[in-house]
Design a protein that fits this description.
alpha/beta; six-stranded mixed beta sheet; single chain; D-Maltodextrin-Binding Protein, domain 2; 19% strand; elongated; 279 residues
Length: 279
């Protein structure tokens, strides 16, 4: 009887010390959960990211499943709360997840050979405006109201939002370009690729940000250094010259060429831009 009691006690201690009773990762059964900002409806985002998660599953030798977020705030919260192990995020979303949950950067995207982008203030080619200061008292077009970086870039160029006679959020970059060209607004903000496309259609670049780090892949704070290294290796080994790899990359975004190495310090330029909005 004493032997049975002692054996039961020992087994209880072993069970309590078992990894099954340690805090769980986001996924189950060795699964990694991949989250994302909501740039499209869930069905479209699932289609865009599914080839990537399938590649990661094969590369890591463990299942990687999608856990899509309904909006930007939820995507950040799930990384902070460790409800997902990694996520596809905007630069500002990464900074918030890092500040609030010790998220770790894995890799950044490469678009048409560039691992950075710029935001540009544009006006009509024949407008009289020569400097950003000339836009005081004028109207301005922004895109998505949730896109903090657009407002930060404009303020960082030397003009406050209250200096405009009016400004509005009108959605996609294409809407902004057409609105400025049609004279509905005196100026607007575009991503570099869109600004270059519209230079030959009647728009002129008035000011631009320094090169900014782009969308990225971020790991939550519960991901070990060993797994972080494996994830970095997996993303950096996606080769645009490999037809199968290129399909995976282009599924995420048709403009992407692949992924590049990055680190937290590279995002300091964005920290500086959004600092006035964090007060």
């Amino acid at each position: 009887m004493k032997t049975d009691i002692m054996l039961t006690g020992i087994l209880s201690i072993i069970v309590l010390m078992s990894p099954l009773n340690t805090p769980a990762n986001a996924g189950t059964n060795n699964e990694l959960l991949f989250g994302s900002v909501a740039m499209d409806i869930p069905a479209v985002m699932h289609k865009r990211l599914k080839p990537l998660t399938r590649y990661l599953s094969n590369k890591l030798g463990r299942p990687v499943s999608l856990k899509l977020s309904p909006n930007m705030g939820a995507a950040i919260k799930e990384v902070v709360d460790k409800s997902v192990d990694l996520a596809y995020l905007t630069p500002v979303a990464y900074l918030k997840a890092h500040a609030e949950g010790n998220a770790k950067i894995i890799a950044k995207t490469v678009t048409k050979g560039k691992a950075s982008f710029q935001l540009m203030i544009v006006v009509k080619k024949d407008s009289p405006y020569k400097t950003v200061a000339d836009l005081k008292g004028k109207t301005f077009a922004f895109g998505d109201k949730r896109a903090l970086l657009q407002r930060a870039a404009v303020v960082g160029s030397g003009i406050n939002l209250e200096d405009f006679s009016d400004y509005k959020f009108i959605g996609h970059y294409d809407n902004i370009a057409r609105a400025v060209l049609n004279g509905d607004f005196d100026a607007g903000i575009l991503k570099d690729t869109m600004a270059f496309q519209w230079q030959d259609k009647g728009l002129r670049i008035l000011a631009e940000t320094p090169p900014l780090p782009p969308y990225n892949i971020t790991a939550s704070g519960n991901v070990s250094n060993d797994m972080l290294a494996k994830l970095k290796d997996a993303f950096l080994n996606l080769d645009g010259n490999n037809p199968e790899h290129l399909k995976i990359i282009k599924a995420v975004d048709k403009k992407y060429d692949g992924f590049a190495a990055t680190d937290d310090a590279e995002y300091n330029v964005i920290r500086k831009l959004i600092k006035p909005f964090n007060k």
